[in-house]
Write the structure tokens for this entry.
Amino acid sequence: MKQVQTERGNEFSDTKRVNMLRQVSEDAPSKAGLFRRVYEGRASPRLAIKVQCLQCCWLDETAIRECTATECPLWDFRPYQAAPCRPVSFLPKCRTDSRKEPAYERT
């Protein structure tokens, strides 16, 4: 397969990745670094999932948050979700009044 070189000099053997990186650089330059790290194999699993979701929903964070593809194996791990509420009792102990009901706060 022919090696294609990007603007920064990184070589990818897959022309689909090169084309995707160019498109992302044009449409959302702030996200290009994420895609580059994944394509170079220097990404954590969490970042790889984030890039996959961004690619699937074409860089729309709101679409990822509202994703209805519950059959997708990554659906439970998708980024940009609201943090779940947990009772304060799970948080580190500090001065509390035992007469009050546990409050809930975002984590």
Summary: The two ends are 47 Å apart (CA to CA).
